[in-house]
Amino acid sequence: MPSGLNLSQYHMGPLVNHNCNAHSKFFVINSENNTLKNTSPILIHKSIVASVGETKSVKKLNNGSLLIEVINSKQAENIQKLNKIGNIEVTVTPHRTLNYSKGVISESEFQRDLEEDLLDCLKDQKVISVRRITIKKNGQNFPTKHLILTFNTPVLPKSVKIAYINCNVKHYIPNPLRCFKCQRFGHTLTACRSKQNCARCSLPDHDSNNCSSTTPKCYNCTGEYPAYFKSCPRYKHEKEI
């Protein structure tokens, strides 16, 4: 991320997408009822090699699906035609995230430009979406110079060129997920199976809107501040992971 940029202060603008066929390298092979989970690796390997040749890697996931990394565009084309492993019917789809990368550019010259116009300048550099980061002040959102770029390649480029300006690309590091129910990191409220803990005082069975405590306490590190305090050592640790 750009030096000194605290994403907790910022808001993401609407996603601007541009349909573009990426050269995918990672594919997922699924079978109905997870039949592949109990299928012999020898049979799986023979079927894949017969279809596309030796791939870079094959990994069986916990749910029984197969994660395939291909070597070149010809293999990428052929793997998507695979519809059977042995007598098991399968479907092949590009992996949802591994074929893409996200980076941030920070250039004040483009602070007044629309995301659509920026995307039009970047589409021949493997950029498929642009989102501007905004900051909220006094209830209003203001645009910043920071732009999140999504590339249709797993390898993040070092720079991009917009008009006559070269912009350095830094890795996009999102803020850690903190559950608004239990206050732990790593999942969201909708996926939470734990009990309610207060974000302000860390005690159970109520939320911060109904908290009467005058002494804040972080649930994650027991510090004298609420769980959403951005200088919490646990938050900083999660940010670095």
What tags apply to this protein structure?
15% helix, 4 helices, alpha+beta, 3 domains, 241 residues, HIV-1 Nucleocapsid Protein, 13 strands, Znf_CCHC_sf, zinc ion binding, nucleic acid binding, Znf_CCHC, Alpha-Beta Plaits, CCHC-type domain-containing protein
Task: Provide an overview of this structure.
- By secondary structure, this protein is of the alpha+beta class.
- It folds into 3 domains: 26-94, 2-Layer Sandwich (Alpha-Beta Plaits); 101-171; 175-240, HIV-1 Nucleocapsid Protein.
- The chain is 15% helix and 28% strand.
- The protein contains 4 helices and 13 strands.
- The strands form 3 sheets. Strands 1, 2, 8, 9, 10 and 13 form a 6-stranded antiparallel beta sheet that branches. The protein has a 5-stranded antiparallel beta sheet with strand order 4-5-3-7-6.
- Mean pLDDT is 87; it is low at 1-10 and 12-22.
Q: Could you give the distance between the termini?
A: 14 Å
Overall number of structural domains = 3
Shape designation? flat
**In what range is the share of β-strand residues?**
25-35%
Give the ordered list of helices and strands. EEEHEEHEEEHEEEEEH
Structural class: alpha+beta
Helix content: 10-25%
- Count of helix runs: 4
Number of strands: 13
What value does the average pLDDT take?
87
Q: Biggest sheet, open or closed, and with what strands and sense?
A: 6 strands, antiparallel
Uncertain runs:
1-10, 12-22
**Whole-number radius of gyration?**
23 Å
Describe the protein's topology.
Layout: E1 10-12, E2 16-17, E3 26-31, H1 41-52, E4 57-60, E5 66-69, H2 73-79, E6 84-85, E7 88-94, E8 101-106, H3 115-122, E9 127-137, E10 140-151, E11 159-162, E12 165-168, E13 170-171, H4 233-240
Antiparallel strand pairs: 1-9, 2-9, 3-5, 3-7, 4-5, 6-7, 8-10, 8-13, 9-10, 11-12
